[in-house]
Automatic annotation (TrEMBL):
<dbReference type="InterPro" id="IPR016181">
    <property type="entry name" value="Acyl_CoA_acyltransferase"/>
</dbReference>
<dbReference type="InterPro" id="IPR050832">
    <property type="entry name" value="Bact_Acetyltransf"/>
</dbReference>
<feature type="domain" description="N-acetyltransferase">
    <location>
        <begin position="4"/>
        <end position="155"/>
    </location>
</feature>
<dbReference type="GO" id="GO:0016747">
    <property type="term" value="F:acyltransferase activity, transferring groups other than amino-acyl groups"/>
</dbReference>
<keyword id="KW-0808">Transferase</keyword>
<keyword id="KW-0012">Acyltransferase</keyword>
<protein>
    <submittedName>
        <fullName>GNAT family N-acetyltransferase</fullName>
    </submittedName>
</protein>
<dbReference type="InterPro" id="IPR000182">
    <property type="entry name" value="GNAT_dom"/>
</dbReference>
<dbReference type="Pfam" id="PF13508">
    <property type="entry name" value="Acetyltransf_7"/>
</dbReference>
Amino acid sequence: MPSLTIRPAILADEPFVTLIVEQAYGHYIERIGRKPAPMTDNYIDYITAGQVWVLAQEQEQEQQLAGVIVLRSEPDHLLVSNVAVATAFQGQGMGRRLLDFADEHARQQGLTELRLYTNELMHENLLIYPKLGWQEYKRAEQDGFRRVYMRKYLQ
């Protein structure tokens, strides 16, 4: 039975991180009219800064990356900058597992609030996040994207 672990990304993971992000966001290009912001980010910089974690599935001493989450610590909250799941693992609760990890990571840092933003044209996200305890608190245009800002308070 394969085991799943979340670990800090290393530089050797960057091509796989980029591929997972492309798989998770590529279908939004036509809808939005351009690449979603996560597809243009520099993951080498994020990995070097210690902001990227990967969800790895290990089976028979072989590791396959199933998902990625980018977390940025702010003084009063943890920003979930990106959460993406590889195509082969979508629909299996991997995104939820990564978001649960973000909750725990925030708690370990003594933070009680998480924030994220998503594009208002990513309708799927606007349905999923509230079911996971996230609440919309603002809409605004930033960097040419119409964004929906959400937060989640930890208990």
